[in-house]
Design goal:
alpha/beta; Rossmann fold; 5-stranded parallel β-sheet; two-stranded antiparallel sheet; rod-shaped; disordered N terminus
Length: 234
Amino acid sequence: MNAAAPHGNAGASPRAGLTVLLVESDPERADRIEQALDGVPGLRVVHAPTVAAARQRLDAEAVDVVLTRPDLSDGTADDLVGTMPVARAIPVIRLHDAPAGPDVPGNRIRLDTLRHPERELPFKLLEIMRAHQQEQEDRARIEELETLLRQVRTRVSAVYHEVNNPLAIISGNAQLLLELARVMEIDPTLLQPIEDIEQASRRLADLLQPLSAIRDTLREHGIEPLENPRDLPE
């Protein structure tokens, strides 16, 4: 079995390649799987015979992928997955010797279908890891887009609020002055500036409508504003 250096030791050299944590309680099966993977350049296999040992490995060092049997001597693959840190997003691949039921979650490799495990298993493993990496990249892009949309809604809402409120006061007062001027029969030449103000405020109100529509559309799609507007980029 390959020895594993604890992750983060002082003076440790940078980690190269991929580290595979093999969780297998049967020593003979573990040896066969390790032999199938040992010859792959850049692939490092560390073995944990139990769920408890696998947890210790995950706490002690950086692991890129977990290969595990569904049933282990001290628990199951689900027991292991349930305690893995979500933030690290490590792909877990279950190894089966027979077809798995439709209710079995996650990625699976059927060892009984591999005619040449030493050649086929590494390719199966890398194929699943590439798919997992693509999924993580897609999720990161979606999260980035959601953050951007939240920033847009926050900024749009702030601009609408800051402009619409004083605009409503200006428009209301302009209309009041027009009514007073007509009742008091003020010189018509004095009405023109007030009418200009009232018309300009209406044009500005019309320009604000697209902002209101954007804000409402984002709200309908579940895009919430940032909790702290100070988080907006400059």
